[in-house]
């Protein structure tokens, strides 16, 4: 895969559900569809300097949407839920 960890981690997910997961020390990210769990773990550890205990991945299919006569489709993406070691935090998410 890509050598740069920022090519693997695309962006964080800030939703009500992901905010409630932060109480359990779990953080959610949109990741590259080609990335595997080991690459995601290494990228998170390199970018945020934290210890990752577990990585769960979900492939999300894009919804079909209509606007009048035309029909389109939102893109598919891959989501990763990362569990950190006790005492570890990602400061990027705090205060959101």
TrEMBL record:
<keyword id="KW-0689">Ribosomal protein</keyword>
<comment type="subunit">
    <text>Part of the 50S ribosomal subunit. Contacts protein L29, and trigger factor when it is bound to the ribosome.</text>
</comment>
<dbReference type="GO" id="GO:0003735">
    <property type="term" value="F:structural constituent of ribosome"/>
</dbReference>
<keyword id="KW-0699">rRNA-binding</keyword>
<keyword id="KW-0687">Ribonucleoprotein</keyword>
<dbReference type="GO" id="GO:1990904">
    <property type="term" value="C:ribonucleoprotein complex"/>
</dbReference>
<dbReference type="GO" id="GO:0006412">
    <property type="term" value="P:translation"/>
</dbReference>
<comment type="function">
    <text>One of the early assembly proteins it binds 23S rRNA. One of the proteins that surrounds the polypeptide exit tunnel on the outside of the ribosome. Forms the main docking site for trigger factor binding to the ribosome.</text>
</comment>
<keyword id="KW-0694">RNA-binding</keyword>
<protein>
    <recommendedName>
        <fullName>Large ribosomal subunit protein uL23</fullName>
    </recommendedName>
</protein>
<dbReference type="InterPro" id="IPR012677">
    <property type="entry name" value="Nucleotide-bd_a/b_plait_sf"/>
</dbReference>
<comment type="similarity">
    <text>Belongs to the universal ribosomal protein uL23 family.</text>
</comment>
<dbReference type="GO" id="GO:0019843">
    <property type="term" value="F:rRNA binding"/>
</dbReference>
<dbReference type="InterPro" id="IPR001014">
    <property type="entry name" value="Ribosomal_uL23_CS"/>
</dbReference>
<dbReference type="Pfam" id="PF00276">
    <property type="entry name" value="Ribosomal_L23"/>
</dbReference>
<dbReference type="InterPro" id="IPR012678">
    <property type="entry name" value="Ribosomal_uL23/eL15/eS24_sf"/>
</dbReference>
<dbReference type="InterPro" id="IPR013025">
    <property type="entry name" value="Ribosomal_uL23-like"/>
</dbReference>
<dbReference type="GO" id="GO:0005840">
    <property type="term" value="C:ribosome"/>
</dbReference>
């Amino acid at each position: 895969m890509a050598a740069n960890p920022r090519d693997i981690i695309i962006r964080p997910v800030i939703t009500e559900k992901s905010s409630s997961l932060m109480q359990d020390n779990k953080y959610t990210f949109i990741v590259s569809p080609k990335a595997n769990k080991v690459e995601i773990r290494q990228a998170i550890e390199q970018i945020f300097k934290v210890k990752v205990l577990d990585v769960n991945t979900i492939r999300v299919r894009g919804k079909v949407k209509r606007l009048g006569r035309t029909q389109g489709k939102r893109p598919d993406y891959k989501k990763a839920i990362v569990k950190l070691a006790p005492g570890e935090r990602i400061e990027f998410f705090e205060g959101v």
